[in-house]
Amino acid sequence: MNTSNGRKIIYPFDEWQIKETEFNIGTNYRNETIFTTANGYMGMRGNLEEGYSGPENTTFNAVYINGFYEEYDIDYPEGGYGLAQKGQAMVKVADARMVKLMIDDEPLDLLKGKIRSYERILHMKKGTVERNFTWESPGGRIVDVSIKRMVSLTRPHLAFIFFSVVPVNFDGQLKFISLINGDIQNSRYDKKDVEKDVRVGAGIEGKVFRTIKTVADNTMGFMVQETNRSGFKLACAVEHKISCGLDHSVLTEAKGDMVRVDITVKASKGKCYNLSKYISYYTSRDDVENIEESAINEVSRAKQDGIKVMEDEQKNFLEAFWDDADIVVEGDAAAEQGIRYSLFSLLQSAGRDKKTGIAAKGLTGEGYGGQYFWDTEIYMLPFFIYTRPETAKNLLLQRYRTLDAARARALELGHKGALFPWRTIDGPECSAYFPAGTAQYHINADIVYAIKQYVKATQDQEFLYNFGAEIIFETARFWQDLGSYILLKGNKFCINCVTGPDEYTALVDNNAYTNYMAKMNLEYAVEVAKKIKMERPQLYAALASKIGLKDEEICRWEKAARNMYLPFSEELGIIPQDDSFLYKKKIDIDLIPEDQFPLLLHWHYLNIYRHQLCKQPDVLLLMLLMREKFTPEEIKKNYDYYEPITTHDSSLSPAVFSILAKEIGYDSKAYKYFIQTARMDLDDYNGNTKDGIHAAGMGGTWLAAVFGFGGMKVGDGELCFSPKLPVHWDSMTFKVRYRGRKLLVKVQKSDISFTLMEGDPLKIRCLEEEMFLEKGAMVKKVYISGGHKKCTTAE
Ligand code: BGC
C-alpha cells in the first residue's frame, strides 16, 4: 500500500498505535523523531537506551527541556541598526536515558549479532513507547528484551524507563549500566548545514554546560550543571529499583560529567530481570527553591509509587484528554492515525506552565532553535481553545510574560507600543534574517487574533481584563505608529515595508493580510477599551495609567482602523497580496524541476522575491481567518489565482488550502491537502521528519478536520456548522468546548447530530438553520451532499 505521497507505507495503519516493525539504520534517525516521548516540559527523542553504534549521520541523540536555552551571538559580517544581536536556542541537556546492558562480556547492540524479532510501539492511549525484541549476541546468547519509556503527563518533571530482560538460552551475568551523561556536545551539525537549512538547527556548537556537582549514592545519582552564557542551572536525578531477586550488586560512581550506577545480576535461563529507572529534571527557570532537592524528591517519590501508579496516572490523564480532543473517523484508517498522531504530538509539545510555548518542532528536534513563532497562535491554539482551554490560556500567558521585551523591541525600532518577536524563546527577537523575521509585524495581530478567539470561545473576561487588554492596547498603539495616511492612496492608512505570512515575498507595501489583521487589532482595542471602561472603570483607570493611555489615542486607533487601506484589484477581481505582487512576473511552478524544491534551499531570495510565487497562503489565510467577511465566490476567485503559484514549501500551507477547498466545493483537493497535513510526518512527506515534527501542520490537521470537513465557524459568538465529509468517510465525530459547554458533533454521510454533554442550553446554527440544544438530548439534521433537507429531529 502507498502513503499519501505515493511512497511505500512506513507505519502500518493502526488507530491508536504507531508501530516500527523492523530495526533499520536507514530509518533510525526518522524514528527517533516519531518515537519521541514528551510532556510539554521535557522531550526525549526516541534514541535507544542501550546505545547506538551506527554511523553518526544516522542518529541524533537528544533530551530537551522546553524553553531551556543557551544564548548565542548572531554574527553579521555587515551589521545594521536594530538587527537582532543575540539568539536563544533550545539545547540538548544531560542525557539520563542510557541503560547499557552487558550480557556476560558482550554488550547489547542491535547493530551486532542477530535481531530475531523486533517491534517498537507508540501507544497513544497509554502514553508510552515500548520496544520488544529478541536478540542473539555474536557469542550466541539469546535475550528477550522489553523496554518501556514514559514521560509523565501528570508529573512534568518525571520520566521512567522500565527495562526487562529474559536470558533465553543461558545462565550468566547481566549488568545494567545506567548513566547520566553530562558530556553533551551541542549540535553536531556542520555549521554550514545549518546556514543552508535553518530548519535543521540553531547553530550552537560544542559544549554549553559546566558540571557543578555530581553525586552517586547507592541506587541514586544526580548531577547539577550550568550553561555557559544564559547562566541557567539544571539538575538531573535518577533513582533505580531492581526486581531481580536478591542476587545482585550495585556499584556507583560520579566522575567528571558522568554519573554511573552499575547493577549486576546473576541470571538464570528463563527468568525475568527488571530494572526501573526514574528520571527527573528541574531547572532554574522553574519556580522551586532548590532544583537539586526537587529532582531528588521527585525520583524518590516515583520510586515509592512505582511504575504501575504512574502508568495508571498516565492512562487516566490520556483518557480525559482523548475524551475532549479525539476526532473519530470511520472509513479512513490512514486519516484516523494521522489525526491522532497530530493531536497526541500537540499535547506532547505544548508548554503548560505559563512560561513556555510550543516550539516549531515541538520537543522532538532543535530545528528553528526550539523557538516559538506565530505557528502557536494561528495554527495550534485553536485546537487547545476548543478542547483544552486552560492550556490555550497558559500559552497566551506566556506571551503576556514577554510583553516588556516586546515593548523594549518596539522602542528600539523607534516605535510606540509593543512589537512581539518573530521568533524567540524568552522574549527578545532571535531572527537573524529581518526580511522574513522582524518585518513579519503581523505576529502582533496574530497574537491579538488568538486572544480574541480565546475570549470569544471561553468568555474568560478576567483573562481579557488582566492580561489580554494590555497586549491588545500596546499592539494597537504599535500599528497606529507604524502606518501612515498616504495622500496618493486616497489618504488611506497604509502600512508599508512589511512581510506578510508568505515568506517568498518580502518587504512590501500594504500586505493585505497585515492590513486586515491590523485593522482587526485596532478595532478590537477600541471595543475592549470601551468595554472595560464601562464594566470595570477602576481597572481601566489603573491600566490606562500604567501604560499612559489617553482617550485621544483610542480615537486615533478608531480612525486608523476606519481608514485602513484594504487592497483590491478591480482588473482581476481578487485581493492582491500587496501593492506590488500583481506586477511581478508570473511563473509556472509545474515547470520548475522537482529537485529545486524547497526553493529557499536552491534559489537566491532575490530571484524568489522577483516572481509571483508563494511559499504558503497569505491572502488565502486571511480569507480563512476572516471567513465571515468573504463570500464563497470571492474565496473561489482568490483560491484559483493563488493556488497555482503556491509551492507549499512551508508545512503550514496544506491545511489552509484543504479548508478553503472544502468551502468552495473542490472536494478532492480538500482531501488531498488534508491527508498531506495529517500524515506529513508519518509519511515523511518533506523528507525531513528526522529533524523533528511539523507542529504547526499538526495544528492544521485539527483545523482542517473541524473547521474544514466539520465546517465549524464561530461567527459573532454563534457556533455554526456546515459539514461535508470526504466521499469515502462514513462519519467523523468530534467534541468542542464552547463557553462552558461540551458539545458532541457527529457528521455522517447524510446527517449531522449534536449532543450537548455539559453546560447550559445552547443555540447553534447548522446549515443556515438555528438549532437549540439542551443537555443530554441529541438533535439531528438531515442533509444531502451539495445541499440539505429541511428536517430536524430531536431524540
Ligand atoms: C514558515 C513560517 C513558520 C516557520 C516555523 C517557516 O518555514 O514560512 O511561517 O513560522 O517556518 O514553522
UniProtKB/TrEMBL annotation:
User: Highest taxon of the source?
Assistant: Bacteria
Glycosyltransferase listed as a keyword? yes
What residue stretches are annotated with the Glycoside hydrolase family 65 central catalytic domain?
340-702
Residues in Glycoside hydrolase family 65 C-terminal domain copies: 712-770
**Protein's GO biological process:** carbohydrate metabolic process
Keyword list, A-Z = Glycosyltransferase, Hydrolase, Transferase
- List ligand-binding residues for substrate: 374-375, 615-616
Active-site residues are 503 (proton donor)
Query: What PANTHER family is this protein classified in?
Result: GLYCOSYL HYDROLASE-RELATED, PROTEIN-GLUCOSYLGALACTOSYLHYDROXYLYSINE GLUCOSIDASE
UniProt family annotation: Belongs to the glycosyl hydrolase 65 family.
- This chain belongs to the protein called Glycoside hydrolase family 65 protein
**Which organism is this entry from?**
Biomaibacter acetigenes
